[in-house]
Amino acid sequence: MSRVSQASSFAASGTGLAGHGSRRCAGGTTGEGLGGDLKHRLGVSYGKVSEVLNDTFGLQVSRSGWCQADQKLARTAQPVYAELVEAIRQCSVVNADETGWRIGTLAAWLWVFTHQEVTVYAIRDNRSSEVVIDILGEEFQGILTTDCYLAYDDRKLKEWLKQKCVGHLLKDLKEMKERRSGRALHFARQVTIVLQEALALKAEKTRLDPFTFYQRTQALESRLDILIAPHRRLSDRDNARFAKRLRKHRPHLLRFLYVDELEATNNLAERMLRPAVITRKTNGCNRNRSGALTHAILASVLVTCRQHAIPILDYLVQLQQFGAAPSSLVSAAPSPAHQPISSISER
Asked: Which helix (H) or strand (E) is 95 found in, with range?
């Protein structure tokens, strides 16, 4: 059955958007899917979604109508979301980040945990390590790439393998250099050189024989150790503070040199947060916890579809076929976690 005929059947049944007072049209189900994609993956406001769908499909739907349609779609997609949570726990490398959010008038945070093949969003009212453990599990065996935010270095995560974003460190060093002159400038310059050479070495790795690569990595490790050594006296307070910060994260600074699939930066997670930033600026995040859960589920499913080059509208139309189990988005995915979906998403 084609997408148009599927949509015609869905609209004729009186369900979906056709059941929210819109004109009956062949675009019912497809329009509902397109609206969900615009809202939850691309960050378009409900008002603008209504304009687009009215012009394209003749769907005249109120904001509350869109909310109800999205909530129904999210309930259908809950098993898929649970599968994605389990899949991200099994990844060898995960990038994580968070950004400010709101649920009604209350402060909240939208978190992202992502890999090249799967992305999971979660919206919580706290910014602590509890969220990291809740999504990735206490026994996470992969490498977690993040910035230097304290939650990622909680004592509960002490034994986890990590990579700190070199891009963030270089940005901080650039700002330090702009505020300094003379001898105080030397420290930031030297650390910058080491990190930049490490990035260049990673890019060269496939062209070097193992012994040469090993020698060069050890030389970089030694130079970095000398620059941030505890006994080294740095008269500039900011330089001393930055050296202390690097010592704290020392095991997690150059790990990317030794793991082929590990990136030096957290750019992947930052890219996955950009639609959330747009959403925050254009339509005020979520009005209630139900809306927050809906957004987390649908954004996770839609972005993962995109990562697998799965036609998003086709997949969303499939989700809306009553009695049909949603297709897996993860190849050979493990069984969904035994933990109930509500405890994963709403805590």
From this structure: strand 93-103
Q: Looking at 153-305, which runs of residues are DSSP E strands? A: 161-164
Main-chain phi, psi angles of 104, to 5 degrees: 65, -125
CA distances from 164 to 73, 170, 175, 267 (A): 37, 11, 18, 11
Per-residue model confidence as pLDDT tens for the chain (347 residues): 333 333 333 233 333 443 443 333 334 567 777 777 877 787 777 778 778 777 877 878 777 777 888 888 899 899 999 999 999 999 999 999 999 999 999 999 999 999 999 999 999 999 999 999 999 999 999 999 999 999 999 999 999 999 999 999 999 999 999 988 888 899 999 999 999 999 999 999 999 999 999 999 999 999 999 999 999 999 999 999 999 999 999 999 999 999 999 999 999 999 999 888 877 777 668 889 999 999 999 999 999 999 999 988 888 888 877 556 667 887 643 333 333 333 333 43
Distance CA 328, CA 332 (A): 9
Alpha-carbon distance of 168 to 265, in angstroms, equals 8
Residue with tokens 């509890």: 130
Burial 238-254 (b: 16+ CB within 10 A, else e): bbeebbeebeeeeebbb
Return d(Cα 300, Cα 277) in angstroms, integer: 16
- Non-local (6+) Cβ contacts of 75 within 8 A are none
User: What sign has the CA pseudo-torsion 191, 196, 202, 208?
Assistant: negative
Residue 162 to residue 167: CA distance in whole angstroms: 15
**Locate tokens 């990735």: which residue?**
136
For residue 334, give the nearest of 84, 74, 92, 129 by alpha carbon: 84
The residues pairing with 110 across neighbouring beta strands, listed in sequence order, are 99, 123
Separation CA 77–CA 247 (nearest Å): 44
Q: In what order do the strands lie in the sheet with 119-124?
A: 119-124, 106-114, 93-103, 143-146, 161-164
Residue 145 near residue 254, CB atoms below 8 Å = no
